[in-house]
Amino acid sequence: MMIKSKTLITVPVFNGEKFIGRTLDSCISQSVKTNVLVVDNVSTDKTRDIVNTYVKHYSNIQLVENTSNLGRVGNWNRCLELFEQSQSDYLKMVFCGDVLLETCIEEVEKVFTHHTNLAIVAWPYVFVDALKNTKRTPKILHQDIELNVEQLIQMDMYPSQFAGAIICHTFARFAIAGERFNECFLGMAEFTNKVPLKGNFYHINTPLSEFHLDSHTSYAKQFEYLFVLERAYTKAIGLENIKNKINENDYLRLKESLYKQLTEKFK
Q: How far apart are the C-alpha atoms of 131 and 214, rounded to whole Å?
């Protein structure tokens, strides 16, 4: 029997035996006890055995085993389905190998509690490259701030840019509301350009999580031609999604900017 928690942490995983312990250790170390669902996509290594050792010792951790491999994006959608079946108000997805810092869930829940109509709360993350023994914290914004979509566009940002990597944002239940990741895409930009539009955006200017490069085997692919083209295409979709929410000058300015980006990348 799992506990009652405002936030549900979901961890989609396939063959994550090397890194799943690191992620679960960070989840059980949260200052606010939070339910954790590990959604295994028919791993062929010892992932399930490792997770089950945590399940035996922690009442807030549960293992869900898919009956067939749903694919990478399909497993993300399985996490969304399980969240909608839960009683939690907020969804925090974490990829295997990444880490939530100790007060992550607590700080995010405080923001949701004190601000109405927030679809998403985001924050900077620490980029950890164990091979080079380096850490850095990329930042887009430099303050605690609440924004609506019009203000975001005035800052030349798309919702997916605000959301950033999946390790550094949490969604409210009403923002997800039946939405799913598009399995035609390799990444999640189309989803994160759409879902946050249902409410306001809040940025916490404090790193609350770590992105660990050693566990992201597909990271280098984001710089390949197909990923670059997909990002441009999903930006175009995102721009059309917000066309009726912004003024015409902002729309035309972003459209021209996107066209310039495309011509420079693919000329």
A: 8
- The 8-class DSSP code of residue 6 comes to S
pLDDT for position 36: 98
Q: 122 or 256: which carries more pLDDT confidence?
A: 122
Q: Concatenated DSSP letters for 112-151?
A: HHHSTTEEEEE--EEEEETTTTEEE---S--S-EEE-HHH
| Global confidence as pTM | 0.91
Q: Which CATH class is domain 7-266?
A: alpha beta
Q: Which spans in the chain are helix H?
A: 20-28, 47-57, 72-85, 104-114, 149-154, 159-163, 173-176, 189-194, 225-241, 248-266
pLDDT band at 224 (very low <50, low <70, confident <90, very high): low
Q: Provide the b/e sequence for 89-116 (b: ≥16 CB within 10 Å).
A: bbbbbbbbbbbbbeebbebbbebbeeee
* Lowest mean per-residue pLDDT among 100-109, 140-149, 184-193, 231-240: 231-240
Please choose, from the candidates 43, 38, 72, the residue with its C-alpha nearest in 3D space to the C-alpha of residue 53: 38
- CA of 196: how far to CAs of 163, 259, 261, in Å? 8, 24, 24
